[in-house]
Q: What sequence folds into this?
């Protein structure tokens, strides 16, 4: 009898464990189903309601056999080029560009792989290669002696560009710029990008963390950004994650010889404000301006303060 009991006890334990885990499994599967189904419904609604609006005033130019989307504000001989960050687009700068266009002819392009620009899987998505794309862009449009402003990833590309083509850049503006810390290459399976990275709810949580004041991270603002990022193929996310630069931007900073403004959200948790001062130590003659009560999306949280700082710097 004792042998029969000992042989049955493990089976009973397994049943109890399975019964205990079943509600958890159902919850996980239900959550995943909700994420997938609601994501598809919301994405279709955003596409229907916003696509036409977000494509207004967009122009295209062919650079190195690739279609590059860009926006343009203002006119005149004084030119400023705005460079967006990772998972951003030229549309990010709409409000700031409107203000700055009173004094400058503003251009903002969508990097290859982002926004409305072409998204080839076999493109080299390194920052240095994107800087070369920018060179082709300005040559195609005949731009020279311009103010170059970059946010986050766009800031790193701006520094690489200014170091490689110093005669093109009259002033450099870095907004919560990447580049001081090395980026690690990461490649995930395509299904992870499709199911999680491109998911509406998960991207929205990440989006909110880029703001200091959560009321500034509005649904409308996120939906605009999400429309562009949902269109990035999972294979392109993989290619971006694998892209590596052979040179560190920190090794180039000593060669920068251009007036530089370093603008930062004082509450940035994505790229800490201490990075601003590290940049300033490396770039001779640069100045730092901290914007209070603003996070990583500093130009979106307080565009007026950012525009005023830029005007003071350029004047």
A:
């Amino acid at each position: 009898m004792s042998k029969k009991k000992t042989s049955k006890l493990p089976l009973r334990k397994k049943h109890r464990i399975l019964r205990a885990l079943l509600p958890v499994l159902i919850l996980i599967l239900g959550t995943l189903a909700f994420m997938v189904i609601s994501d598809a419904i919301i994405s279709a609604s955003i596409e229907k309601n916003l696509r036409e609006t977000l494509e207004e005033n967009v122009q295209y130019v062919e650079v190195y056999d690739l279609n590059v989307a860009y926006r343009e504000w203002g006119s005149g001989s004084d030119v400023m080029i705005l460079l967006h960050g990772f998972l951003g687009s030229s549309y990010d700068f709409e409000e700031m560009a409107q203000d700055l266009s009173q004094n400058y002819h503003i251009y903002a392009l969508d990097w290859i792989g982002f926004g409305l620009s072409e998204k080839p899987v076999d493109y080299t998505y390194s920052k240095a290669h994107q800087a070369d794309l920018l060179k082709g862009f300005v040559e195609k449009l005949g731009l020279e002696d311009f103010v170059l402003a970059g946010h986050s990833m766009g800031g790193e590309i701006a520094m690489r560009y200014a170091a490689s083509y110093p005669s093109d850049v009259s002033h450099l503006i870095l907004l919560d710029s990447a580049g001081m810390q090395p980026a690690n290459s990461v490649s995930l399976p395509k299904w992870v990008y499709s199911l999680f990275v491109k998911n509406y709810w998960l991207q929205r949580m990440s989006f909110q963390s880029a703001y200091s004041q959560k009321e500034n991270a509005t649904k409308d603002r996120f939906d605009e950004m999400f429309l562009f990022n949902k269109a990035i193929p999972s294979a392109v996310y993989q290619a971006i994650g694998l892209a590596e630069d052979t040179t560190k931007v920190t090794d180039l900073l000593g060669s920068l010889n251009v007036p530089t403004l370093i603008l930062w959200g004082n509450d940035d948790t994505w790229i800490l404000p201490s990075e601003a001062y590290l940049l300033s130590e490396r770039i001779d003659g640069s100045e730092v301006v901290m914007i209070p009560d603003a996070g990583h999306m500093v130009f979106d949280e307080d565009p007026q303060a950012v525009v005023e700082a830029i005007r003071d710097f350029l004047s």
The longest helix spans residues 2-54. The beta strands are 59-63, 66-73, 79-83, 105-109, 146-151, 169-175, 260-265, 287-291. The mean pLDDT is 93. The chain has two domains: 1-50, 55-314.
